[in-house]
Amino acid sequence: xxxxxxxxxxxxxxxxxxxxxxxxxxxxxxxxxxxxxxxxxxxxxxxxxxxxxxxxxxxxxxxxxxxxxxxxxxxxxxxxxxxxxxxxxxxxxxxxxxxxxxxxxxxxxxxxxxxxxxxxxxxxxxxxxxxxxxxx
Length: 136
Known about the structure:
Number of strands: 4
Structural class: alpha+beta
Number of domains: 2
Strand content: 5-15%
Distance between the termini: 55 Å
Strand order of the largest sheet: 1-2
């Protein structure tokens, strides 16, 4: 039986064993980076939980392993108090979150980048929502 997964025009098969030949070069490239400790919680869709320290191994696993988006997202949605900022050009996170929010939900989702919006217009929506939340 053939797979029904779409074929993507990428140079490597990210999130699969087919990218393993790039591991040594990738780790060499990012191994010298010195990343600061996050000032806010950093959740990883690779591990499904909070990441306290980013290193070359974790970044490699981000490329190699499948994402655990559902696990991370379900935990956040149960808290119902977040603003989700989708920084991808496609709005895929916003499209994943939006249908799960009810009219009474305290959480909001915002696509920040879009080829169909004037630069800054989507960011202004985020700031306006923040200002309204601070007043209430």
